[in-house]
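User: Could you check the structure of this?
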Amino acid sequence: MNIKTCIALLILLGAVVFVPSTSADTYATFQTTRYYSANRRYFVEVTEKKRATLYRNGRNARRVWSRMLPEFPGTLFVTNDGSRSVIVDRYYGNRGSPQTPVVILLDETGTQIASHRLGDVANLDRTLQTISAAHWCGETKLSPDEQSLLIESRVLRVSWDECRAKVAPHDSGKCWETIPYQHLKFALATGELIERLDLAVR
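Assistant: Sure, the predicted structure tokens are below.
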């Protein structure tokens, strides 16, 4: 092995050693994604340019509406009749800002009928937070009759302050555990938050 080859290998190994580690908040680049209704009769396609388009599915998909989104969706639901689309949180994270819209409802024309901010649906004092997001929700789904959006919000089992004061270093994993906090119910017809049921948190 000649000297030039050795030097090249050393540079390559050095680059590998000094590459900074990737945090848990790193996301892959968003790619065009289709979000289907349960019966697959409708889907919303979101492109890399944040354009959302609702299609009626079939041999030749028929466009129903198209609009720009302020951010990429974290989760997107479409009802079986295509009359409602619901965006829950953001693909790249909500940054823990209480003003960030995290539940957005669109009607049959793609017009926004309701928007709910993070601070209105989450207990940010007890929510697990990382650099890019407050991880405020667990199970999220449409009700079987598709009249409601159901979200289970979550909080830390042990608050950060309590964790720092009482949890031993070898048990620090407990500081990241979350538990159900509230059951939230949104009416798809109006977009209103119509039920907030407290769940056992201890």
